[in-house]
Specification:
By secondary structure, this protein is of the alpha/beta class. The chain has a domain of about 80 residues: Nucleotidyltransferase, domain 5 (2-Layer Sandwich). The protein is built from three helices and seven strands. A five-stranded mixed sheet has the order 4-3-2-5-6. The radius of gyration is 24 Å and the shape is elongated.
Length: about 130
């Protein structure tokens, strides 16, 4: 007795290979670093994501160190940097949720003292 072969394409092995590739891509994508300085952002409900060409990144780490574009700086150097920025430059402030609120307030007051209105406060969505 002959076994009848099914006509057509068997796509089950193809689906198996695709699922393995998907698992590899998903597991590798978790290792992609977003920044050099690890910070835990606080949670927020309404988050706007904007991309700007000219951007000044200010980070406050958990150990209360201030970084401007991944370079550690003190508050006086930060003040000079903010006062030398163009009005069209986006200033993004990221603060670790375990950092002192005092440093965050100092940075925001420097930005307000200059009258710079193009700034954002980074937070993590739920």
């Amino acid at each position: 007795m002959k076994i009848k072969r099914a006509d057509g394409l068997n796509i089950v092995p193809f689906i198996d290979v695709m699922l393995v590739l998907l698992a590899i891509v998903l597991s590798v994508s978790t290792f992609i670093a977003q920044g050099k300085i690890p910070i835990n952002l606080p949670q927020a409900d309404n988050i706007d994501k904007k991309l700007d060409d000219k951007k000044l990144n200010i980070l406050i780490s958990a150990d209360n160190k201030i970084y401007v574009d991944d370079v550690e700086q003190d508050i006086d150097a930060l003040r000079k940097k903010i006062f030398n920025t163009d009005e069209s430059t986006m200033i993004e402030v990221k603060s670790d949720k375990d950092a002192k609120f005092e440093n965050f307030v100092k940075i925001i007051s420097i930005i307000k003292e200059k009258g710079h209105e193009n700034f954002s406060i980074a937070a993590q969505s739920d």
